[in-house]
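Anyone else keep sequences and structure tokens together like this?

Example one:
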Amino acid sequence: MQQAEDFGAESAALADMLETLAPDDWRRPTRFKGWTPDDVLVHLHFWNRAQDLALTDPDRLRSEIAAVGAAMAEGRGRAHENAAVRERGRDLLAAWRAYAADMAERWRAVDPKRRLPWVGPDMSARSAMTARQMETWAHGQAIYDLMGLERAEHDRIRNIVFLGVGAFAWSFHVQGLPKPAAEPCLRLTAPSGALWEYGAPRDDERIVGPAVDFARVVTQTRNVADTALDVTGPTATLWMRTAQCFAGPRERPPAPGERLREA
């Protein structure tokens, strides 16, 4: 399964960057809700292990989901994750890196169409790995920004773009809005320079620009105003202002200038 290999590559790339952090950097707040690199990695490690249970121990996963769901309902979601993942700093980095690498290797052999339990409806193994890559990439962006670093992007980001395109209807639903009758067309330039096109060609509703910027908007790591996307039409404009490619309750996209790379 290519998506498992891409998740492994995304995790390894982030891990290599995290190796450069000084001890004090792990406790510095990022521009993502004030989360520190420790907070980010706790979250990624917790949900990697949860996703892995869908494959190895579905009954335990259901129990874990019930527990974390109850904690989140009481406003203790992060506290629950922090209690479940005890490592911090470089110890956390080592534990997360080793687990993600092992997980990616094992999931490569899984049938991409295999249905697995998750929070809400079951999902395919392919979707599960795409979601893990997306989370790794999106949350990692906050740490790159904190450190003032520009990430070297790769065409494996296409998985995240595909996820964002597929979440068009969800982006409106989670906002309490009706799904528009027609979707905008997309003409996105990949990191390699390849052109990725989605939707029927049209001039009145379209989004043109870097695929990385589209992925940043649908994962809410950037406001569309802080990207090089050329957005035309009321549906495309509203989508890019409110896009959300991940599950869960409605999240507020960042305001212009709120989440940028620090100098």
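And example two:
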Amino acid sequence: MRISALFLPLALFLASCGGPSRPDLLEIGADIAPLIDAFDGRAGVYIKDLVTGQELAINADTLYPTASMIKVPIMVAVFDRLERGELAYQQELVYTDSLFYSDDDLTGEFRDSATVLLSEMVMLSISKSDNTASLWLQELAGTGVAINEWLANHGFVGTRMNSRTPGRRVDWETYGWGQTTPREMARLMEMIATGQAVSPAASEEMLRVLQRPYWDDEALSQIPPAIEVASKNGAVSASKSEVLLVHAPSGPYLFCVITADQADTRWAADNAGYVLIRDISRLLWNTFEPDSPYAAAPGSERYRGSDE
């Protein structure tokens, strides 16, 4: 992995003094495997220690629905057009009622002919997971065709946009809006974090966007709020997912958890998929940071709800 400015100070420190000992991901896997085995549905996890490069993969190359995690490839394809000068980040867009997708979206509340900045649409798509904004950006990116072309050109075999994309109806019927594997979704996050997605400048801006999530009820809820994390989650009734890059004090780590075919399809905070994601996130934090164990403050559950 090319070391970007993001990780260079850490790498220099570790090289000069030997660095703190790192957890063995195989030992972590021994704790995670029973959680995966007991899950009523399918689940996969990919974990990478970005200090040592060690990886742990459990069902990590199996295809799953992306749900709203597909908004990360959408954003990357938009930035690809920005980098080529075909769009401008601060350009004004004109919203029309034909773009409306859902009453749940902030964008869907816009009046016809309202103006909004492209940068604001990116923020709404990633931070708030706004579907109307994301579908609009999908078109601006060049549709699913351009998004899939970027993914294929950068070595992504399983990650694809399905919705509103010619030739992918069967995949859409199986996986919904998009499809991916835990390993590939984590790899895309790593590319962004290390300056390898589109360009170093584009990667930096995308990383800033990914560090401003509104939905923080699952994996993020098991990490101290003062810790900087880049993340994107997704959810449909039978699938829950989240990808995170955690800037932990002892060194960054990356993980992605995705479920599918869940027996528990409730939209509730104690949905089995959400519980699995929280359990894995808590286990990873407390293993990577044994001197700084974290538990959410009493009463925090009143602020937790379902996400999308």
